[in-house]
Design a protein that fits this description.
The protein has 2 domains: 80 residues, Jelly Rolls; 73 residues, Beta Barrel (Elongation Factor Tu (Ef-tu), domain 3), CATH 2.40.30. The protein has 158 residues and is mostly beta strands. It is 3% helix and 47% strand.
Length: 158
């Protein structure tokens, strides 16, 4: 089980992670009626996160960008999460690295999952920001699950 990165290419072999690769964080998080307002317990939001990073809710496979960080125990997301969180430690940080294009290719005999959808062997796609050319906006991270059939997903990026 591994993610290996070489230059502008990454290989995900029998692992579930995001691209860009996620990192562990401290504490547990919860939401209330506003699912874009995150309350932390024993968290270090000011130290471990930056505005523009992403939160990956690993239990529900949802990735949402951080809008503001108010304190070590409170932050606001750019959009609401789909599910209510209650003291969960099932979350990770995905650094808001500025990629304009991410391409992926399934290199397996029976397919793997990309963003929760089973893709067949040989499937590929390129994700690019297609908005206003004068306003830069990075591509949102993708969730890669190569544990479905234990094989490989290859990613290229710039």
């Amino acid at each position: 089980m591994a993610v290996s990165i070489n230059g502008s290419n990454a290989k995900y072999e029998n692992v579930k992670d995001t691209f860009p690769q996620s990192a562990s964080v401290t504490g547990t998080i919860s939401t209330g009626s506003r699912k874009d307002l995150i309350a932390g317990s024993s968290t270090l939001f000011l130290t471990e996160l930056q505005v523009g990073d992403y939160i990956w809710d690993t239990a529900n496979d949802e990735v949402v960008r951080v809008r503001t960080i108010n304190s070590d125990t409170e932050l606001v997301l750019e959009e609401e999460l789909s599910n209510t969180l209650s003291g969960t430690s099932n979350w990770k940080k995905v650094t808001g690295i500025q990629y304009q294009s991410i391409s992926w290719l399934i290199n397996s005999t029976s397919g793997e999952n990309i963003d929760g959808q089973l893709k067949p062997d040989g499937a590929s796609a390129t994700l690019q920001y297609g908005g206003d050319p004068y306003r830069y906006r990075p591509v949102k991270p993708i969730i890669i699950d190569s544990t479905v059939n234990g094989e490989t997903v290859e990613v290229s990026f710039f």
